[in-house]
Write a structure and sequence with these properties.
The strands form two sheets. Strands 4-3-5 form a three-stranded parallel beta sheet, covered by helices on one side. Strands 1-2 form a two-stranded antiparallel ribbon. Helix content is about 30%, strand content about 20%. With about 130 residues, it is α/β, with parallel strands linked by helices.
Length: about 130
């Protein structure tokens, strides 16, 4: 079937697996957090794979209302104002890329937009 390389952030190295081994891994017991969650699109795929969302964060209140309608829970607010100790333990961190800066209804500021700068800071702190 072939091989697949998976990068381990802790060890900073790739491990080669047989593709069949990766495909048959049981993904039925992992926890994830959903940051920059929007209305929860990324969450859908991870739940479908057997994951359980233990925390979500979104700063846009209209998106939070839709997220709550979709999943029955209201995301915490702006991640930059949440203490890391208040975030439950998790296995996988999801972070939706900020689309407002690139949307035709947005300000079209691209990476200079404040939301993108927060996202860039988020990526720097998670390395």
């Amino acid at each position: 079937m072939g091989q697949q390389a998976i990068y381990d952030l802790d060890q900073q190295e790739y491990t080669i697996y047989d593709t069949a081994e990766v495909i048959h891994t049981k993904w039925d017991n992992f926890r994830f957090i959903d940051l920059f969650a929007g209305i929860g699109g990324i969450r859908l795929g991870f739940e479908a794979a057997g994951g359980r969302c233990v925390f979500s964060s979104e700063f846009d209140e209209d998106a939070c209302k839709t997220y709550e309608a979709n999943f029955g829970e209201h995301p915490s607010g702006d991640i930059t104002k949440i203490n890391a100790r208040d975030i439950p333990d998790f296995d996988i961190l999801l972070g939706g890329f900020p689309c407002q800066a690139f949307s035709i209804i947005g300000k079209k500021e691209g990476f200079a937009n404040e939301t993108c700068l927060e996202y860039k800071g988020f990526l720097t702190h998670t390395k």
